[in-house]
What does this fold into?
Amino acid sequence: MATTVIASGITIEGELSTDDEVEITGTIKGKLLSKSAVTVNAGAVIEAEISATRIAIAGQVTGDVQAMDRVDLQTGARLIGDVRAARLTIADGATFKGNVDMDV
Amino acid sequence: MVSKASSETTLSEGTKLRGRISGEGNLHILGTVEGNVAMQGSVIIGAAGSMNGESLEAREVVIDGQVASDVDASQVIRIGASASVRGRLRGASFVIHPGASVAAELDSDFELPAELHELTTENAFSVRSHPQPSL
It folds into this structure.
C-alpha cells in the first residue's frame, strides 16, 4: 500500500488529506487527515490537528488528536492536546497534557 | 524508526496537500498539490500527480503529470511524454519529450551566438535567451 512520507527537513504548512498511511519525521503546521494510519516519528514536530484510524506518536504534537481505532503515545512522545479515541496507550517516558475522550 | 537521514518525501496517489511544502531533499508528488513548493533537491511529479499553484522551486524538476504553476529550477526541467504543463518555466536547461502538452513560456539564461539569437527572437517559440557580453 502506498505511503505518504514526510522526511526530516521538510515543512508543510496547510492541510494534508489522504486515503493512505502517513509517516512523518518532518514538520507539519495545519491539519492532517488520513483514512489510514499516521506515524509521528521521533524528531517530527506537528502543530496540527490529526485525524486518522490509528495514530502512533514518538515525536512532538501540539494539537487535538482523533483516531477511529487507537492512539499510542510511545516513549519520547510529547503531546499537548486532547485525545479522542477508543483506545489509548501512554508509554513510560511519554508526556501528555490534555483531555481524553474514549467515546463510550 | 531510523529514517533520520531520509531525504525522500513522497506524497502518495491518494494524498492531497493544500498549502506549502518546503525543505531539504527530494519530493515525489504522486498525488495532488494545491499551493506552492520550494525544495532544495529535486521535485518529481509522477504521471498521476498534479501541482496547481503559483510557484514550484527546486534544483531539478521532472514532470510526468500535470503542472499549472510557474516553475523555477536552478538546473534542468524535464518534461515527459505524459506531462501537461502550463506556466512560466525558468531553468538552466530543458528536456521536452514528444507527446508532452506544453503551454508555457520558457526562460533560460544561456549564451547563444548572435545569429541564433536573432533567429529565436523572430520565430514563434517563446524561448528567450539572455546573451552575455563577450569578454
Q: What stands out?
A: Chain A is about 0% helix and 65% strand. Chain A touches chain B through 29 residues (CB under 8 Å).
